[in-house]
Amino acid sequence: MVVEVRVFSWAPSSDWLTTLEGLQQTMSDTLNNSNPIIKLHRGDLPDGLTFGSSVAVDTETLGLNPLRDRLCLVQLSAGNSEAHLVQFDGLSYDAPNLKQLLSDPGVTKIFHYARFDVAVIQHYMDLTCAPIFCTKIASRLTRTYTDRHGLRDLCGELLGIELSKLQQQSDWGTENLSQEQMQYAALDVLYLHGLKEILERRLSREGRHHLAHASFNFLPTRVELDLSGWAEQDIFSHS
To answer: Fewer CB atoms inside 10 Å of the end CB: C or N, the chain?
Structure first.
């Protein structure tokens, strides 16, 4: 796969912003596009960049403990062939454009396993993401014929796309991300819109749409419990 990578420090020049016009493509174009454009921004999104009514979101951290392992990267996609990566140095998470997007009530944030990503974002950026659609929750509510609900499993079955996880265990805190790391990070968001569309149809077909959205709405509370020390405890259990 050939990847075009563009690196920016904070907001790019106004000349670059004009190139955003006309870049929106259909989801089918995205699924058949083997050359995604990856744009790396340091510290925040550029001024004037919009994602429409829904944005796919993922994060990369130093590990799997949000209280210990810092947020290094936030990936976003509008569902076209572009992925925007916002890299943090660990010293500051003052990213007004990104924060505005993630907290915008008019933009649905699409995650895979939102529980972790929302916790990381809340802990380091001090904001609550809403509204949310989680493809992992939707998968568990509809794909009851399997116990395989990872992003790679969903992309393989529902979209016919094989994702590589070779960079999953990687040093995301490095100042200079490799092309392989950026490609891996981008692929985690490029297909979430397509998965959401398919899973929403299945939720409606099985009459479980209300269960999914009730679960999505509970996620901020679940995240608060996780960050407050109840991550490993089921507070609803009898024992």
So the answer is: C
Domains of the chain: 4-229 (3.30.420.10)
CA distance 148 to 158: 12
**Confidence (pTM):** 0.86
In this structure, the number of other CB atoms found within 10 A of the CB of residue 24 comes to 14
**125 neighbors 95 (Cβ within 8 angstroms):** yes
Residue ranges of alpha helices (H) inside the chain are 14-17, 27-32, 96-103, 114-125, 135-142, 151-154, 179-190, 192-205, 209-225
Kind and range of the H or E element at 64? Answer: none
For the record, the structure tokens of 57 come out as: 């979101």
The pLDDT tens digits of the residues spanning 179-195 come to 999 999 999 999 999 99
Return the percentage of the chain with pLDDT > 90, whole number.
Answer: 82
Report CA Rg, the chain. 17
